[in-house]
């Protein structure tokens, strides 16, 4: 059953639909939470955050915009939930650019295609060089606001916006040069 149909059933308070969405997306959500919380996060902390995220999805089911994808909506909830937990602990997220950073964050349904796409994207972002790669990851994978990125990196928000604009173009050129689909 597709996400739209499951979401429709969930809006009618069908708990079986929620269970199917949890089965489908729990690993994806946990991966995002793990990346935002960092290497110090324990399994129980991650599981608790994942439970909170799916509870928030259940509560918001009637307000979810059908024009977007449920996957991206869950990513936003996961990122915000994990960032709020970090704030409560007085920590800020670290942005590693390693093997696992982009794994599982693409939209592919095929795990091998997902892994290959993540690897190509990781390499292309790595070619952008600092601080562009960090700005790009913070904005597009952790959904941080431009002002937050600017403050964290000691930059002007306009500079961050300019680097994002140029970074998108740079990334497009790198991926095209390699023959990767956009």
From TrEMBL:
Superkingdom field: Bacteria
Residues covered by the RNA polymerase sigma-70 region domain: 21-92
GO biological process: DNA-templated transcription initiation
Keywords: DNA-binding, Sigma factor, Transcription, Transcription regulation
Segments traversing the membrane: none
GO molecular function, one term: sigma factor activity
Keyword Transcription regulation: yes
Alphabetized InterPro entries for the sequence: RNA_pol_sigma-70-like (IPR039425), RNA_pol_sigma-70_dom (IPR014284), RNA_pol_sigma70_r2 (IPR007627), RNA_pol_sigma70_r4_t2 (IPR013249), RNA_pol_sigma_r2 (IPR013325), RNA_pol_sigma_r3/r4-like (IPR013324), WH-like_DNA-bd_sf (IPR036388)
Keyword check for Transcription: yes
Residue ranges constituting the RNA polymerase sigma factor 70 region 4 type domain according to the UniProt record: 119-171
Similarity section: Belongs to the sigma-70 factor family. ECF subfamily.
UniProt protein name: Sigma-70 family RNA polymerase sigma factor
Originating species: Feifania hominis
